[in-house]
Amino acid sequence: MPAAAYAGKDCVCQYRRGICDQTCVRDMLDTPFYIACLKLKGRRCLVVGGGDIGLEKVEGLLACDGDVTLVAPHAIPALEELAAEGSIRWEQRAYRPEDLEGTFMVIACTDDTDVNIGIYDDAEKRAMLVNIVDVPPLCNFILPAIVRTGPLAVAISTAGASPALAKRMKREVSELFGEEYAQLAIMLNDVRGWAKGTLPTYQDRKAFFESIVNGEPDPVALLRQGDAQAVRDLIAAAQGTHQPA
After folding, report:
1. CA 55 to CA 82: how far, in whole Å?
2. Which DSSP string corresponds to 28-81?
3. pTM to 2 decimal places
């Protein structure tokens, strides 16, 4: 449940209102978020909370090659299995502030407000990334809905206003940008080395790639028809056209 829906329920953020009056989300839609793609490979990522949401966050971090540690007294069977096979480390106990040492980011999904506030405060003191799930004022980054197809990733964010809308947009985006876009990205990546080694300026390289992506015939349409060779021919023709002077 997003924090915007907590009105009238027990307060779960650091404002400690007793009963939520939505103070914490009043300015959310006016907050400009800096969108970035993080490289997690080899970086220590901490998840606090061993329930279904914890599993969702663990799986997302593992998909990006994060080095994942789970801290939770108890965990659902799927998380136990990940720990047993060595995919994650599981510290079977309550959270401690020292768990954040040497950690790149922490995602917490506990049902204990005091624990959540403590994790956020501990992380802020260390100037590290922290996300307390569904409590925006206890986050210095938010997680968008992600559509992944091969090397492509499309992030969708409503700034926390409506996760349901983000899910609908994710479904529609995945239908719009299918496998053929991922295939084209791979094919274009294969000629990046040629472009860097052959075309002397950024503008030359930009013109080369745009002539393929935005040219005629449409490479995406060709891939939808199953004609990958025609796209390779388009790329070869562009290479011939964009030789250095």
Report:
1. 10
2. GGGPPP-------TT-EEEEE--SHHHHHHHHHHHHTT-EEEEE-SS--HHHHH
3. 0.75
